[in-house]
Amino acid sequence: MDRREFIKHIGSAAVATSVVLSACKNNDNGAPIIAKNIIDGEGEMTLRTNPNTGDRVSLLGYGMMRLPVEGGGTSRENPDSPIDQDLVNQEVDYALEHGVNYFDTSPAYCQGLSEHSTGIALSRHKRGSYFIATKLSNFSPATWGRDASQAMFENSLKELQTSYVDYLLLHGVGMASGNFNATEAFNGRYIDNGILDWLVEQKEKGRIRNLGFSYHGDINIFDMLLQWHDEGRYHWDFVQIELNYLDWNYAAQINPRNTNASYLYDELEKRGIPAVIMEPLLGGRLAKQPDYIVRQMQEREPETPIARWAFRFAGTPEGVLTVLSGMTYMEHLEQNVATYSPLRPITPEEDAFLMKIAEEIVELKTVPCTACNYCMPCPYGLNIPAVFSYYNECVTQGEMPTGSREAREFWEARRRFLIGYDRNVPSLRQANHCIGCNQCTDHCPQEIDIPAEMHRIDDYVEQLKQM
Questions:
Q1: Residue 430 and residue 451: Cα distance in Å, rounded?
Q2: What are phi and psi of 162, to 5 degrees?
Q3: How far apart (Å, rounded) are the C-alpha atoms in residues 391 and 460?
């Protein structure tokens, strides 16, 4: 789908907004200054209707994959710390009070504890006031057996304290697993064991209200499942895809194994399959932009958090049912609720602006890591997401040592980079300890060649140290 087609899906609200904004003045560069007094969050949560069930779903979905732990942070950062259930309860209460009713979890999230914590928080409320989405996360070949996969689903119901799941996903289709390619892994997880047919039976029994899948990786699997939908072999009630303003046109350029979001959304939209959106911030990358990009955004909307641009983009297409955000802290929840209460759709002029920003971002040579943590734990103790995050942040913030080695600025930047590396990633967890075992690569939804990237970063660090 090209950008003109995308704009068709923005809807009349965006057209009305663009008319209002056309009266705004221009700044010194000739670009329009979008109203400086814009106040988001002054209305009710935007809801989208699921055409299959009539569900009125909040445009903001609560991703329960980064739950807070006692002492601060998340289970990814502090895996030995218990989940702070009181804080989870408070955040879930706030979300429900402000119109958020879609909660997305998985047996694989938060060291396997997300469903349990989610069940405790939600069971305190009337069951019909929220929608639960969880996944059949049978990634390991040890869970491919029919009995093991069925037991995983039954345990999800137990942990979530419910007799049915509103939205059940085949988790991460298109991913390889160990020595199995994407097709072999999909067949082993869902077809050869008869589990997909069994899930259809559970839907007929009312234990699953909507059946769909989340897509990562091999586009042939995505196309095959939609072909099955067209043929009537299986009906997909919804599909979860990665969509943001960088992945819209540049996903494949950033990582050749990925597929542009424009193609994924278009294929769903023309079939009338609702899209659930993951990674609207691309693992937080779109909330941490280089200073010169931040200035461009603040020049247009001085009081708007830059992450809001990404959330507005992800929520604008009318075929989007909900946009997931893994919100650890109350302030993140409050900001995201404000963004969608109600949604200010992206206008055609703003869309062009974001496409320009995307072009600038793609020129930065970063690692396409979304910090999903599926690669963890590393058997040799490396903190893979932390290494990539620090490196990417230095690249995007212009903190890499560049220019002439004769300049004082180069040596100051070198010192800051090396000191920051040690502060952000303990020495025993840094890239130089990677032995290239490849155990991590099979679990990466972005299909990053993790050992190659770790060695590239280590080589760079060592060059700086030897100077």
A1: 12
A2: -145, 160
A3: 10
Q: What is the dihedral of CA 314, 318, 322, 328, to 10 degrees?
A: 30
At how many degrees (to 10) do helices 330-339 and 85-97 cross? 20
SS3 state at 120: helix
Quick one: which of 302, 261, 292 has its CA closest to 357? 292
Helices (H) then strands (E): counts for the chain: 17, 10
Other C-beta atoms closer than 10 Å to the C-beta of 199 total: 21
Digit-coded pLDDT (tens) for 210-247: 999 999 989 999 999 999 999 999 999 999 999 999 99
Number of neighbours of residue 150 by Cβ within 10 angstroms = 18
The rounded distance, in Å, linking the Cα atoms of 344 and 312 is 7
**278 contacts 240 by C-beta, under 8 angstroms:** yes
Tokens coding 177? 């697993």
Give phi and psi for 421, each to the nearest 5. Answer: -60, -45
pLDDT of residue 198: 98
pLDDT, one tens digit per residue, over 400-446 is 887 778 888 889 989 999 999 999 999 999 999 999 999 998 888 88
pTM, entire model = 0.80
Distance in angstroms (rounded) separating the CA atoms of residues 240 and 255 = 19
Query: At residue 27, does pLDDT exceed 80?
Result: no
Strand ranges (E), 174-280: 208-215, 238-242, 275-278
Rounded to whole angstroms, how far apart are CA atoms 234 and 369?
32
Report the SS3 class of residue 336: helix
Region of poorest pLDDT, from 28-32, 179-183, 335-339, 458-462? 28-32
Contact 41, 305 (CB under 8 A): no
Hey, how many other C-beta atoms are within 10 angstroms of the C-beta on 183?
A: 15
* 276 touches 265 (CB < 8 A): no
Report the DSSP beta bridge partners of residue 325.
Answer: 62
Of the candidates 216, 237, 245, the residue with the CA atom closest to the CA atom of residue 315: 245
C-beta neighbour count of 227 within 10 angstroms = 10
For residue 132, what are the β-bridge partners? 103
| Cβ atoms 117, 64 nearer than 8 A | yes
Residues forming beta bridges with residue 57, ordered by sequence position:
48
Rounded distance, CA 41 to CA 121, Å?
Answer: 24
